[in-house]
Amino acid sequence: MKRQYLLLSLIFMVSFSACKKEDKTIDYDTVDNFYKKVSTIEVEVAYEPGAEPYTTLTNGDNIWQFTQTNVEALFDGRPVSVSVTVPPNLASMQQIPDQNRDNYSAQDVMNLATRFREGVNTQTSGNLWVVFLDGYFKDGDSLRTNVLGVNITGTSVTAVFKPVINGVGALTSQRKYIEQSTVVHELGHALGLVNSGLPETSNHTDTDHGGHCTNQDCVMYWLNEGAVNLSNFVSQNGMSQFTVVFGPECLQDTRSFFP
Ligand SMILES: [Zn+2]
Ligand SMILES: [Zn+2]
Prior knowledge:
CATH superfamily: Collagenase (Catalytic Domain)
Largest sheet: 6 strands, mixed
Number of strands: 9
CATH architecture: 3-Layer(aba) Sandwich
Structural class: alpha/beta
Strand content: 15-25%
CATH class: Alpha Beta
Number of helices: 8
Bound molecules: zinc ion
Helix content: 25-40%
């Protein structure tokens, strides 16, 4: 099933880049670009009504610090120091109109990005767009009611499927970290992990599940895209908003990548 989806998004990506060539502009929305001269990365967040992301922990702390911690970890120890901006509350995110549908294909997600994404990628600044949707992922003809999120292959566009988040985790506090871990996993794809733009520096590519890590303690482990496993992952790791959930193999890949 996963392979089917990758193939689908690969086909889509090819046609997408074909369009881009025609307007003769340089495409800065590439994995390589993030690891060249980019010194600021903005995580831009949008949401449908009813699909609002969690923003605070019970003690009032900002849970989006978790995404910030983990994106920063990917760029830690690299030649260009990167300043990462993550919106701390709903007021600094964009509410998009209710789309009145219960499923979204990869193409539907890209159409939303075209309509609502505000930031762009340049030579020195990166933008990662994350949209929270009140519906499920539609992979070809099948409705994927256990897929928490997707990164559209070859792009910096990610969708999180809020009804799946709402159905997992025994406690709301766990659900918040499941949601954040979903964002981090998909941003890991957007930023080229594992062997999807970033070459591996050790043998940790899961060959049966492309773009994923064989380390079960890493957020890029393939089952961590699904509700049940990610729920266990979160409850087994004592999480705080400062916990780095990428394993050492994935972190070493970013530290060794000089495109
Ligand atoms: Zn994945
Ligand atoms: Zn890993």
